[in-house]
């Protein structure tokens, strides 16, 4: 990783981006304000503080710096077995990315090194042996490894009921092993039950607040994560990720100003991390949420500026373990901008990032299909769907075939807009409703277009206004305060002559969008409000 190259890119981003620079909060907290953890170890007393520093960094997903701390512990005390466990934990990155074959090999070597050292406590050996289950040299897939590790951590948690770190790491293992397409939310609910109690006892623990936010990061649970979201940034303000992470809950709940400020603060914090590694992936992730927040309050110019600034970040500034993430965002951000602002022709003209992996290229083709559907452009929609399907098939045959599972939603949406363009309205509605129902059951990404809102758009476009209003309102239950959801509901109600309902939604939209905006929808809302 080219640390200095990234810092230059980041400097360019912040100083050439006046819209961000004017609004960002100057991050003045001490660099080492990363929260407090307690994990007694049997190593040399002189390394206790550095070990706990590494653990605090680990809990905020500052993996590279955590590895440095654990290495410093090993340099000072080569017989500190638990520090090797710490390094291995820095490679195991649940909720972040799946380990490569090389990651598994490296983690296994670290665990084996820890297991050969004598003199450490039984508790420390149990932590090491638990992680050894994840890194074992066999052919289990990631889901199975995660589930097996979680089962062992449950036993460790039961064995050491007074060890709060055991509770925290067990909760994390629950989140990391949540089955794909799970509708029960059993693991997150278990984690919330554990972490909510710890949150009362450990208000300054970075992992407790962080994992509470992750556990609640679902439309059905988001309210439960709000206290932790508002606390986490105060616990670890030196961490760009800790400053960004609360926006997952803010975006779920439609708290756009808090969402925006959270990500501006995260961007600003990267400049304060003197001598510490902050990969560009943190910056990019914050930009993704920042663009989305600006779009929901009608700040199109600022949203566009976020999109344009992706060009200042280079692939070698991103963590090698997240290769492809920059390309994904270079596809996602322009697509979201064009679709959210209803720039259908602009969306049709989008090009996928050159050389991007299939799952990233597919985002562009999905956006084209949606836009072509709105324009009733059958050839354009058909071409986009064919290209999307080609990317899906390529992904299935790749070394990351699991990515194809996450492409199914956009694939069905793309097909729905194709048949809509072809005039097969009932089939289009059925396809899109299947996705909307799936999202209602499983949840959806924080910065994704809700399929149910799209369903409202389809119904509105065929003058089925009462049905459209019902879908917009249902979408707003799970994705509150979205610009297009509010406007769609208001406009549908207006045309149905439901004046009070229309006025309520228009008023909420105008309340959200209190800054100057070029969105014509706001001009319409203001004109109607002036008549009342």
CATH architecture of the domain at 451-532: Alpha Horseshoe
The poorly predicted ranges are 1-31
What Rg is obtained from the alpha carbons, in whole angstroms? 24 Å
Listing every helix as H and every strand as E from the N terminus to the C terminus, the arrangement reads HHHHHHHHHHHHHHHHHHHHHHHHHHHH
> Percent of residues in helical segments?
55-70%
Task: Kindly list the characteristics that best describe this protein.
532 residues, Serine Threonine Protein Phosphatase 5, Tetratricopeptide repeat, disordered N terminus, mainly alpha, single chain, globular
Question: Mind explaining what this structure looks like?
Answer:
With 532 residues, the chain is mostly helical. It has a domain at 451-532: Alpha Horseshoe (Serine Threonine Protein Phosphatase 5, Tetratricopeptide repeat), CATH 1.25.40.10. Helix content is 67%, strand content 0%. The protein has 28 helices and no strands. The protein has helices spanning 3-15, 18-23, 48-59, 63-76, 81-91, 101-115, 122-135, 142-159, 164-176, 186-201, 206-215, 226-235, 240-244, 246-253, 256-270, 280-296, 300-308, 325-340, 344-348, 358-374, 378-396, 408-421, 425-442, 451-461, 465-478, 483-495, 499-512, 520-531. Helix 10 runs antiparallel to helix 11 (206-215) and helix 15 packs antiparallel against helix 16. It starts with a helix and ends with a helix. 53% of the residues are buried. Mean pLDDT is 91; it is low at 1-31.
């Amino acid at each position: 990783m080219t640390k200095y190259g990234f810092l230059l890119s980041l400097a360019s981003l912040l100083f050439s981006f006046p819209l961000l620079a004017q609004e960002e909060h100057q991050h003045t907290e001490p660099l080492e304000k990363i929260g407090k953890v307690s994990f007694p170890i049997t190593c040399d007393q002189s390394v206790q503080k550095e070990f706990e520093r590494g653990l605090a960094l680990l809990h905020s997903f500052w993996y590279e710096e955590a590895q440095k701390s654990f290495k410093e512990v090993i340099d000072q005390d080569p017989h500190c077995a638990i520090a090797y466990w710490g390094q291995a934990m820095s490679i195991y990155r649940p909720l972040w990315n799946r380990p490569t074959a090389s990651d598994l090999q490296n983690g296994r070597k670290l665990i084996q090194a820890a297991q050969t050292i004598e003199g450490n406590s039984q508790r420390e050996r149990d932590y090491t042996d638990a992680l050894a289950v994840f890194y074992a040299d066999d052919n289990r897939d990631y889901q199975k490894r995660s589930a097996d590790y979680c089962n062992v951590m449950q036993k460790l948690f039961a064995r050491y009921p007074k060890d709060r770190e055991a509770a925290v790491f067990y909760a994390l293992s629950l989140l990391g092993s949540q089955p794909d397409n799970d509708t029960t939310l059993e693991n997150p609910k278990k984690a919330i039950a554990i972490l909510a109690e710890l949150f009362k006892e450990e208000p300054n623990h970075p992992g407790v607040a962080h994992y509470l936010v992750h556990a609640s990061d679902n439309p059905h649970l988001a309210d439960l994560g709000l206290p932790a979201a508002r606390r986490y940034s105060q616990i670890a303000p030196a961490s760009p990720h800790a400053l960004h992470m609360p926006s997952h809950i803010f975006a779920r709940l439609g708290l756009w100003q808090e969402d925006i400020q959270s990500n501006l603060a995260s961007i600003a914090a990267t400049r304060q991390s003197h001598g510490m590694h902050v990969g560009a992936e943190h910056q990019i992730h914050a930009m993704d949420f920042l663009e989305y927040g600006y779009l929901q309050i009608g700040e199109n110019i600022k949203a566009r500026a976020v999109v344009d600034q992706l060009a200042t970040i280079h692939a070698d500034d991103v963590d090698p373990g997240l290769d492809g993430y920059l390309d994904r965002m270079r596809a996602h951000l322009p697509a979201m901008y064009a679709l959210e602002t209803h720039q259908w022709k602009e969306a049709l003209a989008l090009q996928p990032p050159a050389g991007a992996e299939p799952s990233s290229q597919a985002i562009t083709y999905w956006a084209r299909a949606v836009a072509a559907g709105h324009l009733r452009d059958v050839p354009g929609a058909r071409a986009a769907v064919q290209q999307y399907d080609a990317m899906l098939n390529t992904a299935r045959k790749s070394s990351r075939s699991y990515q194809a599972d996450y492409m199914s939603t956009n694939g069905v949406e793309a097909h729905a807009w194709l048949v809509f363009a072809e005039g097969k309205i009932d089939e289009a509605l059925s396809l899109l409703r299947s996705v909307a129902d799936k999202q209602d059951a499983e949840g959806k990404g924080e910065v994704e277009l809700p399929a149910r809102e799209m369903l409202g758009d389809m119904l509105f476009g065929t003058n089925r206004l009462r049905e459209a209003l019902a879908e917009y309102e249902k979408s707003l239950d799970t994705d509150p305060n979205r610009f297009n959801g509010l406007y769609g509901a208001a406009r549908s109600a207006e045309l149905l002559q439901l004046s009070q309902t229309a006025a309520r939604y228009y008023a909420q939209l105008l309340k959200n969008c209190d800054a100057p905006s070029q969105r014509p929808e706001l001009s319409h809302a203001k004109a109607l409000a002036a008549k009342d």
